[in-house]
Amino acid sequence: MVNMMNRRGLMLLGSVIIAGSVMSGCASSKNEAGAGGKTNSSNEAASPAVKVEGPEVYGIKLTDMDAGGTLKGQYKGKKIVVATMAGDTEKALKDAAGYFQKASGATVEVQSFPAESYMEKIQLDLQTNKSFDAVVMPVALIHGFAEGGLVQDLKPYINNKDLVSPNLALDDFIPSLLDIYGNYKGKLVAFPYKPDSQIFFYRKDIFEDPKMKESFKAKTGKELTVPQTPEEMLAAAKFFTKSLNPDSPVTYGYSTMADNTASRWIWTNRLAAFGGKDIDKDFKPAFNNEAGLKALQFAVDLSKYAPKELLTLHWDEANTLFTNGEVAMMEQWPGLMQAAESDKSKVKGKVGYAVTPGGAPTMGGWSAAMSSATKNPELTYKFLEYVTSKDLEVLKIKNNMDPTRTSNYMRPELKKQFPMYPTLLDSLTKGKILADPDVPFVSPKLDDIMELNIQSVLRGELQPQKALDSMEKSFNEVIASTGIMKQ
Length: 487
Known about the structure:
The chain folds into two domains: 9-196 and 364-434, D-Maltodextrin-Binding Protein, domain 2, CATH 3.40.190.10; 199-363 and 438-480, 3-Layer(aba) Sandwich (D-Maltodextrin-Binding Protein, domain 2), CATH 3.40.190. The radius of gyration is 23 Å and the shape is globular. The protein has helices at 9-36, 88-104, 118-129, 139-147, 155-158, 175-182, 204-207, 210-220, 230-239, 264-271, 290-303, 315-323, 336-340, 377-387, 390-396, 406-410, 412-417, 421-430, 443-458, 464-480, and strands at residues 56-57, 60-61, 79-85, 107-113, 134-138, 183-184, 187-188, 191-197, 199-203, 252-256, 327-332, 351-355, 362-370, 433-434. Strands 3, 4, 5, 8, 13 and 14 form a six-stranded mixed β-sheet that branches. The chain has a four-stranded mixed β-sheet with strand order 10-11-9-12. By secondary structure, the protein is α/β, with parallel strands linked by helices. A hairpin with a 2-residue loop joins β6 (183-184) and β7 (187-188). The two termini are 28 Å apart. InterPro entries: Bact_solute-bd_prot1, SBP. Residues 1-24 form the signal peptide. Belongs to the bacterial solute-binding protein 1 family. This is ABC transporter substrate-binding protein.
């Protein structure tokens, strides 16, 4: 997601990408032509597969450490550089790189940059220095790079039978992820790397408490169940807000992270549920309608049952409120699960997981793509294939990178270790709107526009319809400046 970083970096360089798209596109064509034919000389010599012992992770012995026998040390002496943001993604890539180096003979350097500057640094390099062979970035940014010709189509490499792993299994990727994260204008510009979907976390202990059920029935005339609809969510949020119900065992009925990088998701979690979208297929705003208005009014109503400091809550602050046992329900990204189930959590073993009420959660996600300017396209492709393979996906879970492949959600060892996974899989198949509007070059700017207006509505400074009018006008102006909007 673009949300937690300096979201203006992409805008600063968007015009540079557009201007350089022709040159970058030429580099892409050259590399793809080589990918469809025979592999290069480093791959010609018949060599036995290099034996690499895989680790045991979550009770699963990892065995496909040589990419189905296609890595035989044949890339010895070659090097690639992979760029991403510092933190969990960096750690996961470095873990996988250690095994890849043993199997391939190559050197993999993972370069990472702080959250506040990684976007502009990586984008500038793709356009000018061209030292990065691969990048792992949020989906909307990858699509912007694809529009500018800075990353290339992976299909020619996949079609090269001498190169591709027999265990690639494209159909094992969750279909919605392969489509949304990977495909762009008829090309497969990336492999899905890290899935994200807003999840509905709730205190199952209090939802299942007979006293709470009896009290809810007495107050509302309805049964207390895990909310599936927005209306049920509002009723439960009101009931569990202590200022309105002194018998509530928690302080707040609802919470989420909603500072000026994240408040829009309270709205988008219901926008699709009510039949709306942020952007249509022609890059035109599609939210200034009944669905958008209804979803924004719902966000206003829901915030009445949240902490007063809701609009200042970032990731850590919001999660702490929940893990301290002060909140009945929370919508958050999957990473909350590990904090909620940690030994320090006051709600360990008391948390349930469900699809966000309305059944159309907001999706985030990161993808892994190949630079159009790489001088080692085969090696780069093999690394991307490797780190997104079924077994290596299990390795990255240790660094909060959940699987993108359906089969990994079916592994009994992982289902036991991560009780949220069935819900996450369900949510990933139902998500319809991305956390950042999928508009090349200007996604961060559109984020800012949404945040400015939605924050104003939630503070009571702007009426919902006026906010939608303002957002639509600004969206049209910003998107028109890119020249990609269809008339």
